[in-house]
Amino acid sequence: MLVLLCLVSISMTSQIEIKNKIVDFASFAPLKSASVYVKNTTIGTITNTDGRFLLSIPKRYANDTLVISSIGYKSFKSLVSEFDSTMDIFLEEDIASLDEILLIAETRPTTGNDIVLRAIEQLPQTLPDSSYIQKGFLRHKERNSSEYKWLVESAITLYDSSYDAGSKNALRLNVDQTRKSYDLRDVDSLFAYTSYLKTRTKNKTLRKNNLRRDTISTASLVAAIRWNDQRVNGLDKLFRGKINMVRNANATGALFGEEILARHEFRLDTVLVENEKKLYKIEILKGVDFVGLNTPDIYNEGFQAKGWIYIDWDSWAIKKVMYELVASSENQVKRSKSLFGTLLNHKLVMTYMEYQGKMYPKYIYYETPKLVNAGDRSSDQLDKDGNATQDKADFYYNTVQEIVFTEIIRDPELIKLERSKTWTEDIFSPQPYRPEFWENYNVLLESREEEKLIKDLTIRAGLFKK
């Protein structure tokens, strides 16, 4: 009997691994962020910048349907057991006729503004109305113009009680396991420590030259560096902050809240198709007012919004948001050009998947520049010949957070069990590596460029440890 149970357990946990490349039929260009999933389940992933993916599927789903889809393309479908990994998969365009659709629209909203307002109004119906847990994979990386400085890859758990509840109290995050963690950032920690102390003591006159390195403990410097990381792009900011604009549309001062049309203008572009469902494609344009994120101790105001939003024709569910914040006010333009050499300060992509009639986060991409030496402005300084005294490539790092969610848990008993564990959302704390945990865990496949940069970082980290 014991042997039989062991065999059943092995059968239930064994996996089918599939991989391939998704390509545009007309241009032969790789399709980035295409969805790859098993129909009627939450098992799935997305393609990387090379159009490639890798997915582990439990063998019990061998006779289920694998779906590969991308907005504006006809979907590809195959039985999991019959999937061919030897040939690239080509997707053809699939676009609906906007003029014909609007002719039969009757009382349906026909302007971009009205369509978006309807979608926001429907969020209590389209987003989850009961508690759930999602399992996912996080890749957090920082780099200058030529190499990675920091890389963390973690398995994470997200708990959310429902859209109606405010995310501050209803949403929790846990870092379950860490797969990779390399940190070779050349941080002048005294600058970060100075800004850290200014915030804690409210002493605005404090300067780096007032401090002596030999009087500060290493633990205090580490705390300051961690503080600088978390205030810009910690998981708390990403999920509970304004940048999570769909989930937090019911929060005070939300980007997609009551003043949405003051900060944005929406223009209906066309109607696309995904999985035989029509989607509005709506352009996000600059509104009358500037957009701001109200980040403590950082001037994160004075932006104009641009991008795209995709909304389901039938349910009004928001399927995808591509959102950028570009420096627009005089002060923000000067700051962005001086510190970063670019006006683009925030780039966000969020996609959602439908499961049992509700929309759940599927993929998040968030990119923003972050100062290495918080509080320093020496990048503005010029030498006697008028040349910059510091290379901007080393003055700030471009930071990227990518998350793909691969499992949804709605069973109350399983949720209760997960919540009974000790939770921490600190991705900076080192954890022991457990290869057995990662053996069948679905992760984001690295692009070829990322593979090279990660390899270089691994070598440099090894040399550093020696």
Overall description:
- It is a single chain.
- The chain has 466 residues and is of the alpha+beta class.
- The protein has 2 domains: 2-94, Carboxypeptidase-like, regulatory domain (Immunoglobulin-like), CATH 2.60.40.1120; 112-187 and 233-465, no CATH class.
- The chain has helices at 2-13, 98-103, 112-121, 123-126, 167-170, 189-201, 218-233, 235-240, 260-263, 330-339, 392-395, 412-419, 435-438, 448-465, and strands at residues 15-24, 35-38, 44-46, 52-58, 65-69, 76-79, 89-91, 132-143, 148-160, 171-183, 264-274, 277-286, 303-312, 318-327, 344-355, 358-371, 396-409.
- Strand 2 and strand 3 form a beta hairpin.
- It is globular.
- The model is unreliable at 1-12 (pLDDT under 50).
Topology, please?
Layout: H1 2-13, E1 15-24, E2 35-38, E3 44-46, E4 52-58, E5 65-69, E6 76-79, E7 89-91, H2 98-103, H3 112-121, H4 123-126, E8 132-143, E9 148-160, H5 167-170, E10 171-183, H6 189-201, H7 218-233, H8 235-240, H9 260-263, E11 264-274, E12 277-286, E13 303-312, E14 318-327, H10 330-339, E15 344-355, E16 358-371, H11 392-395, E17 396-409, H12 412-419, H13 435-438, H14 448-465
Parallel strand pairs: 1-7
Antiparallel strand pairs: 1-4, 2-3, 2-5, 5-6, 8-9, 8-17, 9-10, 11-12, 12-13, 13-14, 14-15, 15-16, 16-17
Helix pairs in contact: 6-7
